[in-house]
Amino acid sequence: PLPEKEVSLVKLNDSIWVFSQATIEALPLLLESVADEEIVEGVEATVERETFAEWVRSGMPEGLREHTILLENWQWIALIILILLGAIIDRIVTWFFANWVTKLIRSANKKSKYEVKDNLLRPVGILAMAYFWSVMVKILDVPVSALNVLYFATQVIMAVSGVWMAYNAVDILAGYFQTLADKTATKFDDLLVRMFRRLLKI
Q1: Could you report the per-residue pLDDT of 151-199, keeping only the tens digit for each?
Q2: In angstroms, rounded to a whole number, what is the distance separating the alpha carbons of residues 111 and 89?
Q3: Nearest CA-CA partner of 52 in 139, 110, 180, 146
Q4: What is the DSSP string of the chain?
Q5: What is the spatial distance between Cα 172 and Cα 101, in angstroms, rounded to a whole number?
Q6: Is residue 58 predicted with pLDDT exceeding 60?
Q7: What pLDDT sits at residue 124?
Q8: Which long-range contacts (CB under 8 A, 24 or more apart) does 76-83 make?
Q9: CB atoms < 10 A from the CB of 76, how many?
Q10: What are phi and psi of 19, to 5 degrees?
Q11: Bridge partners of 10?
Q12: pTM value?
């Protein structure tokens, strides 16, 4: 039997009708209730191909398809895996860019021992991690309400990471200019670099 959920249309203006918010939120339960039904003859051509989430769900035991706090159990497991993969991506991207920027700055002065610390480029890793989450969470077929919350959270993380990266970029640029200043005999260049760093961080 179909779940007792609303299926209705609402009128936006004089000519446009759309499904109501309650109907959209009920879609996962409605789809689940007819998942095992045969497709009506002549409708196959209009049915979309099986999604990744549907393919995974079809191979899951009944226990993992049960709902626990908004999501199916297998979706909770998938979210935990995504979090772990995102953390790995964060570390790899941070390490890669820290080494790359260090080599780039040292190329300006072969005698320089300047090294970009990982924490200065950590925002880049977090940005990559959040972007990975924002892309992958869409394929899990989570309810619209949960998807909106998760997607909003990833956008906030990316925005904060961008601001943090802009702040840390001042230290990286200052390190580059310090490497150039080390090639000169005067101390005036060193003073300019310190002024540059303080001015941009005000």
Answers
A1: 899 999 999 999 998 888 877 777 766 676 666 666 655 566 566 566 6
A2: 32
A3: 139
A4: ---S----EEE-SSS-EEE-HHHHHHHHHHHHHTTTSPPPTT-GGGSPPPPHHHHHHHTS-GGGGSEETTEEHHHHHHHHHHHHHHHHHHHHHHHHHHHHHHHHHHTT-TT------GGGSHHHHHHHHHHHHHHHGGGGT--HHHHHHHHHHHHHHHHHHHHHHHHHHHHHHHHHHHHHHTTSS-SHHHHHHHHHHHHHT-
A5: 9
A6: yes
A7: 92
A8: 78/140, 79/137, 79/140, 82/132, 82/133, 82/136, 82/137, 83/133
A9: 17
A10: -70, 145
A11: 18
A12: 0.65
Residue position matching structure tokens 């099986």: 50
Task: For residue 52, give the amino acid letter.
Answer: F
The pair of three-digit structure tokens given for residue 42, joined into one six-digit string = 């002549």
Size of the chain in residues: 202
Question: Two tokens at 8?
Answer: 């209705």
